[in-house]
């Protein structure tokens, strides 16, 4: 499984996705998320081409929970961008496992990092 995860991360980075180091550990625990994450990245690259993508683990220390986030960043935000983000979510939602980890594509409303 480790080899599959490392290949996935390497492929994501080659396509321009910024991947935090913690992602590998998260996917080792919740590898069932990989098909949904792959689909989300592929669809985001197609439908949100002017964006920057970051894959990272979010930690909520108040409830001791973590989730995998694919963050989408744009130079400008408007209703069209937000609608496109919602549309991309619909494309991978059915691939999410019912009982293994958490994953969502979202924005943090920041501009792309240089």
Please give the share of residues in helix: 40-55%
- Overall structural class, as computed from helix and strand content, comes to alpha/beta
Average pLDDT, rounded to a whole number, is 93
Distance between the termini: 33 Å
How many beta-strand runs? 4
Strand content: 15-25%
Q: How many alpha or pi helices?
A: 4
What Rg is obtained from the alpha carbons, in whole angstroms?
A: 14 Å
Estimate the global geometry from the Cα principal axes.
globular
The secondary-structure element order is HEHHEEHE
Question: The biggest beta sheet, please?
Answer: 4 strands, mixed
* Low-confidence spans: none
Query: Which strands sit side by side, in order, in the main sheet?
Result: 1-2-3-4
């Amino acid at each position: 499984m480790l080899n599959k995860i490392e290949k996935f991360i390497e492929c994501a980075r080659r396509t321009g996705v910024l991947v935090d180091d913690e992602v590998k550990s998260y996917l080792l625990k919740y590898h069932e998320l990989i098909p949904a994450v792959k689909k989300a990245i592929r669809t985001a690259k197609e439908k949100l081409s002017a964006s920057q993508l970051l894959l990272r683990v979010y930690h909520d220390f108040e409830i001791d929970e973590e989730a995998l986030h694919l963050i989408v960043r744009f130079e400008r935000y408007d209703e069209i961008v937000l609608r496109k983000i919602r549309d991309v979510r619909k494309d991978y939602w059915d691939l999410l496992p019912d009982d293994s980890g958490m994953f969502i594509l979202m924005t943090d409303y920041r501009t792309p990092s240089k």
